[in-house]
Design a protein that fits this description.
Tetratricopeptide repeat family, TPR-like_helical_dom_sf, about 75% helix, mainly alpha, two-stranded parallel sheet
Length: about 475
């Protein structure tokens, strides 16, 4: 039985008839074009396994169709079955040794398998025949980048852009390689020259802005970003970076306007809603900030930063119980961020739950033992509530994890003196003075008696001229 759907424009009807055939365990013969139509539908729906099933059935009926074999190879790569895909490509190559699509896929598979030089050889061979070379040049650059040869990658990305200045991927990866190699000044000159030749490339202006920003030149960065949005007025990334710079410059109203403009063109972005909310938070308009953080949660309920920052706003409003709910939600989503546990500790402490607060500090220290802020806040809470021996243990443990932190040394000195362990304290004081002499003044916040201050000065004076 032959079903010919060549003239049937209703793709859904074609797919439905095919699925009925499978459901009824029947075997019909379709034209190759019909199979391709069904395969394309499944691919667009991201139903790769179903597409592969159709491809297998079609290949049995049309075993010599190179198009179907190539399609099957593509589908296998989507399922990360690169070796199987390569076998099919090699088979096709015996019949079509110079077919561009087949060789291009082969090179892509080589990249995924880590056979980088083989991939570069194939891309290079295709360059001889390609009329539009930018994609091949970009792929060669990306392969070199995957090998860690960033300078070679940069050279090929530049070549790709000479052929097609609108190759967004090449602009993006070029910027990454210039950044990772520290060639920011070179990148600056490149983008300037590129813009001289292509003044309406919004991407070039955008990455020029990124380069200026990384070099700390915020004024020129802002100008470059503004040019990118003038050229392409719906370019959300440009507005976002403008907003980021205004935040850096403490111009929060202007940052707010930039993020609001970006949202006109990138509505479903939890991160962008958080950026907008942050401008209100910085202006201490906490209720407005919470509203926008909640919008971020609506877009992505697992966006932990939105829960965390909404909690901070509630904490600033002295709504400690409510803030604790948000902080705990953040840890449920991302339990390895020590800042979330520090926030829980602060909220518990504010409500008078000292033991729960200390437990949260301990959790934070386990997650980030090299973060001195965690140890210092933990120790301070215990010391201020009379747990001086425990506070001393904490700062001494902190010294093992943060041996180069002067403030922890000085805090350990203060606590040891408070517990009468003068010899150990003065030994640590010498280390603290060597690490950062200027911070020694914090010791006198702990001791007002002249005898202790005199003993401290006798040691401190020895290091004044060192």
């Amino acid at each position: 039985m032959v079903d010919d759907f060549k003239n049937d424009d209703n793709v859904l009807e074609v797919v439905e008839r095919f699925e009925q055939m499978l459901e009824n365990d029947e075997q019909h013969f379709f034209d190759v074009q019909v199979y391709e139509m069904v395969i394309t539908y499944y691919r667009q729906e991201n139903k790769i396994k179903q597409a592969l099933q159709v491809c297998n059935i079609a290949s049995h009926q049309y075993p010599f169709s190179m198009e179907l074999l190539l399609e099957k190879a593509h589908l296998l790569t989507h399922l990360d079955k690169y070796n199987q895909a390569l076998e099919l490509v090699e088979k096709i190559s015996t019949f079509q040794p110079t077919d561009y699509d087949t060789l291009f896929l082969k090179a892509n598979i080589y990249v995924q398998l880590g056979n980088y030089q083989e991939a570069i050889d194939v891309y290079g061979f295709l360059l001889k025949f390609a009329s539009e070379k930018d994609e091949l040049l970009y792929n060669i650059g990306y392969t070199y980048q995957s090998m860690g040869f960033y300078d070679k990658a940069i050279a090929f990305y530049k070549k790709a852009l000479k052929h097609n200045l609108n190759n967004e991927a090449a602009v993006l990866e070029l910027a990454y390689c210039l950044d990772i190699t520290g060639n920011l000044e070179d990148g600056l000159e490149y983008y300037k020259k590129f813009i001289d030749e292509n003044p309406y490339s919004f991407l070039a202006w955008y990455h020029l802005g990124m380069t200026y920003a990384k070099l700390g030149n915020m004024t020129d960065a802002l100008n470059a970003y503004e040019y990118s949005t003038l050229i392409k007025d719906d370019f959300a990334p440009g507005y976002i970076e403008i907003g980021n710079i205004y935040i850096t410059l403490s111009r929060y109203d202007e940052a707010q306007k930039a993020f609001e403009t970006a949202l006109l063109h990138e509505t479903f972005s939890a991160d962008l809603y958080c950026k907008l909310a942050y401008t209100f938070e910085l202006k201490k308009e906490y209720y407005a900030a919470i509203t926008h953080y909640k919008e971020a949660m609506e877009v992505d309920k697992l966006w932990d930063d939105a829960w965390f920052r909404a909690g901070l706003c509630l904490f600033s409003l002295n709504k400690y119980y409510e803030s604790l709910h948000y902080f705990r939600k953040a840890t449920q989503i991302n339990g390895i961020n020590e800042n979330y546990w520090l926030a829980i500790a602060d909220a518990e402490f504010a409500m008078g739950n000292i033991l729960s607060s200390l437990d949260a500090y301990e959790e934070a220290s386990n997650l980030a033992p090299d973060n001195p802020i965690v140890w210092l806040k933990w120790a301070t809470t215990m010391y201020d509530h009379g747990y001086i021996d425990k506070a001393t243990e904490v700062v001494l443990d902190a010294l093992d994890e943060c041996p180069e932190n002067a403030e922890i040394h000085y805090r350990a000195v203060a606590y040891l003196i408070s517990t009468g362990k003068y010899k150990q304290a003065f030994n640590l004081l010498e280390n603290a003075l060597i690490l950062d002499f200027d911070k020694h003044t914090m010791l006198f916040d702990f001791f007002s008696d002249l005898e202790t201050q005199k003993a401290l000065y006798q040691i401190i004076d020895q290091y004044k001229t060192l």
